Amino acid sequence: MTVKEIADILGAEILCCGELADQTQVHSACGSDMMSDVLAFVKDQGVLLTGLVNPQVVRTAEMMDILCVVFVRGKKPDQMMINLATAKGIILLSTEERMYPACGKLYAAGLESGKTV
Amino acid sequence: MSEPIILRYQVDGDDFVSCGHASEDVKRTLKNIGFPASVIRNVSIAMYEGEINMVIHANGGVAEVVIYEDRIVITLTDTGKGIADIEQAMQEGFSTATDAIRELGFGAGMGLPNMKKYSDNMKIESEVGKGTVVTLEFLLND
Questions:
Q1: In this predicted complex, what is the ipTM?
Q2: B14 pLDDT tier (thresholds 50, 70, 90)
Q3: Which site in A49, A102, B20, B60 is 20 to 30 Å from A14, CA atoms measured?
Q4: Which residues contact A80 (CB under 8 A, 6 or more apart)?
Q5: Residue B64 annotated in active site
Q6: Mean pLDDT across chain A, nearest whole number?
C-alpha cells in the first residue's frame, strides 16, 4: 500500500513530503501514544499512528526508520515538527479519525501489524 | 578506517525539544561510513534511549561515541541523582519518571531494558547523588 492510499482511506491531510506519498510503499503499521513502547516493540513497521504531538514523535520515527506518521483525532504538529520531518523525508499526515477506527480501516484495507522485536 | 572516530556530544538537560540531536548525528555518521543497516538501527535506538534518559532523569550529560572498525562503544555520563537499585531499574516497566514525562510519551520503564536488548554489552555504574555512567558496546560480527 502506498502512503497516498493511506491518506485517501483516512481522509487525511498531507502535511509534508507529499511528493513522496505516491512512491512510498508500506506493508505494516503500528499505533501508540507512548514513544517508549514504539522504541521497545516496533520492528519494521513503516507507519506510526499516534495521538501524541511533540518533536520526539518525529525523532522516534527517524530512529525506527518509520516512513510516515499519521496524527489521529485531528491533531496537528507545529511548524518546527513539520520542518524536522521535511528534513528527514518523513511524511506527516493528519486525520480526524480516532485511533481505533483509523487503525481498523487500514488493517481492513490490508495493512498488517507486522512483526514485533 | 584505521584510527577510531570519536564523537562527543553535550546533551542539554533542559531541552526536551532538541533531545535526539546526538543520536541523529551518530545515525548520519554511521550511514555515511557505510555500516550495515541493522547495526545502525541498534545503535540509533539505544543511543536515543540513553539521550532521553539523560534528559528526563539526570539533567543532561555527555555522550561519547567511539567508532572502531569492528565495534562501536557509547559512553553516556551524567552527574544526575544516580540509580539506587540497578537491578530494579533494569526491570521492564519500572520507572521513576513523572506524569509530566509520561505525557510526553516516555517513561514506560523500557529505556534501560531496551538499551540492553539492542546492544551486545551494557554496563551501568552509578552512585546515588553523584551520577551514572552507562557503557554500550555494539559488535560487528561479520
A1: 0.91
A2: confident
A3: B20
A4: A55, B17
A5: no
A6: 96
Mutation target among A44, A63, A66, A99 for the B interface, most CBs of B within 10 A: A63
Q: Which CATH number fits domain B5-139: 1.50.10.10, 3.30.70.790, 3.30.565.10, 3.30.360.10?
A: 3.30.565.10
- B142, pLDDT greater than 90: no
What CATH number has the domain spanning A3-108? Answer: 3.40.1390.20
Size of interface A-B (CB pairs under 8 A): 68
How far, in Å, CA of A43 to CA of A59, rounded?
Answer: 16
Angstroms from B5 CA to nearest CA on chain A: 21
Task: Note the pLDDT of residue B38.
Answer: 93
Task: Kindly report the backbone phi and psi dihedral angles of residue B92, in degrees, each rounded to the nearest multiple of 5, phi listed first.
Answer: -60, 130
Tens-digit pLDDT profile for residues A48-104: 999 999 999 999 999 999 999 999 999 999 999 999 999 999 999 999 999 999 999
